[in-house]
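Ticket closed. Logging final result for Glutathione S-transferase family protein.
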Amino acid sequence: MKLVGTLLSHFVRRVAIPMQIYGIDYELVEASVVNDQDLIRNHNKLVRIPSLVLDDGDILADSNFILDELDLMVPDDARLTPSKQENRRSYGQVIASLTGSMDKATAWFYEARRRPENLVWPEWAEHLSTQLAGGLIQVEEMATKNPSDSPYLFEDKITHADIAVGLVYPMANLVTPGLVNENTCPRMHALSKHMNATEAFMSTIPSK
Ligand SMILES: N[C@@H](CCC(=O)N[C@@H](CS)C(=O)NCC(=O)O)C(=O)O
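Final structure:
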């Protein structure tokens, strides 16, 4: 399989990390949406990353859909999703909040860091950063309602939700340190620290 994208993208890492945990081999086709649009277009005319080229030539896009497909390639008990039906709804809420934060982190980055300085709309950048923080604060509130000795959000096992926290918390903490930090989001802080120390996270750290 070929994973098209760059590990600088949290959406790409969100796919790379489970592939690592599942032991699914892949080749990373290093491609950034800023510098390698033609290369990405060859695989996905939407010019978006991540795109996953399967061995049969089919191409999957969108991290949520890609993860759904990867989850089907492993035994039930290895899947990075909650096992209990009763957790389905809250898991969906948590994933929507966290991937929403990822969307806002991306949008913030382009608004605040990529635009020519005279074209930046500071109020919009501020709004985006508050949304980025909001997704995490929302998950912190949900986690606070369900106190647990486990570092993980669901069923004392790693799920895609924990991986998403490990990816987006550091960005939220960097962009909005006053809103998302150890004191305001203690569960998210501890979970992010834990996840970022795992082998799957360490082995997918972007090299540049
Ligand atoms: N919903 C998508 C979002 C992916 C996404 O936003 N990727 C960014 C890079 S981090 C991208 O390709 N941006 C270029 C574009 O959408 O034009 C997913 O979950 O995969």
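The CA atoms of residues 94 and 139 lie 6 Å apart. No further action required.
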